């Protein structure tokens, strides 16, 4: 929440004089850092683990664009007309999804490990759209910082080739936007104590955590607890990898919320609605 400061008459007159000076002599007065960092990030969930996040300055990031074959898909490839960056967490079909046709359509860059990039290039995506993306790397995108972390999960590719037989290491992503708001997308990772380090280093405001039908609720809750380490910012919890109407016996939000309660954690878990636009500010 921002702080409102009152200005006296003299500072106001000084600012007015500076503005006139700038107009007369063609100078531009740069915006203050606080003004440049304002604005909101929007987030949409389209079913399973497919999210669209739009930055303050309009950069569009697609995470796990699982569309074709997704029984809960709320959007089609034809509906997506813009993307600047695509983040598949691994090469499985429900993470990689429609990454290739979307990249060819929009020209978006794809961040991922070398083995997955090799396979994607073999599908016809130009190499200049495939920057590096192994754990420990980062990408700067016009004020947005995307950090790649590892995920404890298997990986693969839909149709292995001799030169790209699997998808490399599975990953997660920590994204910090122009306004400072930071989200950790865990990918399909199980809980790992490394998440405590990332919580301390990057202090995410939100975690989009893995909650598949067979997910152990305590494992999901441990991911959240680790990410809270030395991190007072974490206030938003969003599940992914789940059906809109879970089958009988599948892990639910209530199950994970109960596991969190057993750890003394009271942060509520959001139940996202497909295609609804959620807005976040720092």
Give a structural overview:
It is a single chain. With 282 residues, this protein is an alpha/beta fold. Helix content is 26%, strand content 18%. The chain has helices spanning 9-25, 33-36, 93-96, 99-106, 114-122, 194-202, 217-227, 253-262; strands at residues 41-45, 51-54, 60-63, 85-87, 109-110, 138-141, 144-150, 171-176, 182-185, 206-210, 236-240, 278-280. The longest helix is centred in the first third of the chain and has 17 residues, at 9-25. The protein is globular and about 50 Å long. 41% of the residues are buried.
**Percent helix among the residues?**
25-40%
Q: Note the main sheet.
A: 6 strands, mixed
Head-to-tail CA distance between termini: 7 Å
Report the radius of gyration as a whole number of Å: 21 Å
Tally of helical segments:
8
Give the total of beta strands.
12
Query: β content, as a range?
Result: 15-25%
Order of strands, widest sheet: 5-4-3-2-1-12
Classify the secondary structure makeup into a structural class: alpha/beta
| Average pLDDT level | 89
The coarse overall form would be globular
Please give the oligomerization state of what you see: single chain
Low-confidence stretches: 1-36
Order of helices and strands: HHEEEEHHEHEEEEHEHEHE
Write the layout of secondary structure elements.
Elements lengths: L8 H17 L7 H4 L4 E5 L5 E4 L5 E4 L21 E3 L5 H4 L2 H8 L2 E2 L3 H9 L15 E4 L2 E7 L20 E6 L5 E4 L8 H9 L3 E5 L6 H11 L8 E5 L12 H10 L15 E3 L2
Parallel strand pairs: 3-4, 4-5, 9-10, 10-11
Antiparallel strand pairs: 1-2, 1-12, 2-3, 6-7, 7-8, 8-9
Helix pairs in contact: 6-7, 7-8
């Amino acid at each position: 929440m921002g702080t409102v400061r009152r200005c006296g008459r003299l500072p106001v007159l000084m600012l007015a004089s500076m503005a006139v000076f700038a107009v007369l002599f063609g100078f531009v007065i740069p915006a203050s850092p606080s003004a440049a960092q304002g604005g909101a990030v929007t987030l949409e969930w389209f079913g399973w683990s497919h999210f669209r996040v739009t930055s303050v300055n309009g950069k569009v990031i697609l995470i796990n664009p699982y569309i074709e074959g997704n029984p809960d898909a709320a959007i089609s490839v034809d509906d997506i007309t813009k993307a600047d960056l695509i983040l598949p967490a691994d090469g499985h079909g429900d993470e990689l999804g429609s990454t290739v046709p979307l990249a060819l359509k929009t020209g978006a860059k794809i961040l991922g490990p070398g083995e997955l990039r090799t396979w994607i290039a073999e599908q016809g995506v130009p190499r200049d759209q495939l920057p590096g993306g192994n754990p420990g790397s980062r990408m700067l995108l016009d004020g947005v910082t995307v950090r790649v972390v590892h995920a404890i999960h298997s990986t693969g590719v839909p149709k292995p080739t001799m030169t790209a037989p699997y998808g490399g290491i599975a990953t997660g992503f920590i994204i910090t936007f122009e306004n400072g708001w930071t989200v950790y997308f865990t990918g399909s990772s199980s809980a790992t104590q490394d998440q405590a380090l990332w919580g301390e280093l990057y202090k995410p405001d939100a975690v989009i955590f893995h909650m598949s039908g067979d997910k152990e609720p305590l494992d999901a809750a441990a991911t959240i607890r680790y990410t809270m380490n030395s991190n007072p910012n974490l206030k938003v919890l969003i599940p992914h990898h789940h059906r809109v109407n879970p089958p009988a016996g599948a892990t639910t939000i209530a199950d994970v919320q109960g596991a969190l309660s057993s750890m003394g954690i009271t942060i509520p878990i959001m139940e996202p609605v497909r295609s609804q636009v959620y807005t976040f500010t720092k």
